Amino acid sequence: MSKDLKVIAIMGPTGVGKSAAAFAYAQEIRGEIISADSMQVYQSMNIGTDKPPAHILTIVPHHLIDIVNFKEKFSVAIYQRLARAAIDAITSKDHMPILVGGSGLYLRAALDPLDFPTGKLLSPERRRLEEIAKKDSGALWRRLNKIDPEAAAKIPSENTRRLIRALEIIKETGELYSQKNQAWRERRSIYNTLFIGLSMERARLYEKIEERVDKMMRCGLLEEVRNLSKQGLARSITARQALGYKELLDYLDNKLTLDQAIALIKQRSRQYAKRQMTWFRADPRIHWLSVDNLTSNQTAEAIKSLVTKEKFM
Asked: Do 29 and 146 belong to one domain?
């Protein structure tokens, strides 16, 4: 880890066109892409996580996609280690690491000096918290709210992973999660990083999100979820929470009609995009590019111009 190593980070809300623009730009600069998507790490979860198609992967190397079975547990701490190893490996070839994604926590884990719980993924404490969540989805939030209401106010009650992480940190360190989070407010990268954010007018973004959900359904998302359900997706505490999968699992369990499930996917995707923008807007390091009317190639050109303007390359 060194300030001498350069990294380009491209981020923004779901549906804004990050992956396509990064792919177009990477071809111009001998870049390699590192996915910063918390769900693209899982094998077989392809349509709903909008993974790049196979022919794209043969043109530009992509890292940290399809690296773990969806039945296995994965954490941001593991991602941090793997992402930094990928940055080192790409740099050693004199190529440019391009970190791309909308998972703000994963992006900061890779780039900033943040610490995460050292407890094992299969520790008794984590298993206990996961079992509690399975029996009562709101129990972890209520527990955190009783111990650390400031932290609970910032974590959605359905975000099981973050709730477990917060409770683990409290138990492991003896400190409140909200106090521990004070260190996170400092924004500095361990690399020489150029942060680039892609933004879009909200109405247009929501329209693109809904179009993408419809396309996923046409491409067989329901069949993908049905097949994964037969393999045990519903028992995965993490993977089953992915947008699109959670709602269609509820449809297969007769908890929702198909129309209700699709409407809920769109609603939650819009809400997720709004949360992503709130997260990213809090980071003053990000240089924002408006891409409302740009193609992926035009967005790549805008990125190239910004890199030149900042004298980064």
From this structure: no
Integer angstrom CA distances of residue 282 from 9, 113, 187, 197: 16, 17, 10, 12
Q: What's the CA gap between 90 and 96, in Å, rounded?
A: 7
Model confidence pLDDT, tens digit, residues 53-92:
999 999 999 999 999 999 988 889 999 999 999 999 999 9
- Tell me: pLDDT of 121 over 60: no
Specify whether the CB–CB gap between 243 and 268 falls below 8 A: yes
Query: DSSP 3-state assignment of 210?
Result: helix
The enclosing domain of 141 has a CATH number of: 1.10.20.140
Count of CA atoms in the C-beta half-sphere (13 A) of 286: 22
- Identify whether 245 is part of a domain: yes
Q: Which residues pair with 288 in a beta bridge?
A: 197
Q: Could you give the residue ranges of the DSSP H alpha helices within 148-257?
A: 149-152, 160-173, 177-180, 202-218, 221-230, 245-252
Shared domain for 146 and 15, answered yes or no, is no
| pTM, full prediction | 0.83
CA distances for 264 relative to 17, 245, 261, 268, angstroms: 22, 11, 5, 6
Burial 133-154 (b: 16+ CB within 10 A, else e): beeeeeebbebbbebbeebbee
> Which residues, other chains included, contact 158 with Cβ-Cβ below 8 Å and sequence gap of 6+?
137, 241
Mean pLDDT score of the chain, rounded to an integer? 92
Domain that holds residue 239: 6-112+187-309
Q: Which two tokens stand for residue 93?
A: 């070839």
- Does residue 48 lie in a domain region? yes
Residue 256 lies in a domain: yes
pLDDT value at position 118?
59
Dist. CA 76–CA 5, nearest whole Å: 22
Alpha carbon distances (Å) from 153 to 141, 148, 261: 9, 9, 27
User: Is 1 part of a structural domain of the chain?
Assistant: no
The answer to whether 159 and 243 have CB atoms below 8 angstroms apart is no
Single-letter code of the amino acid located at 110: A
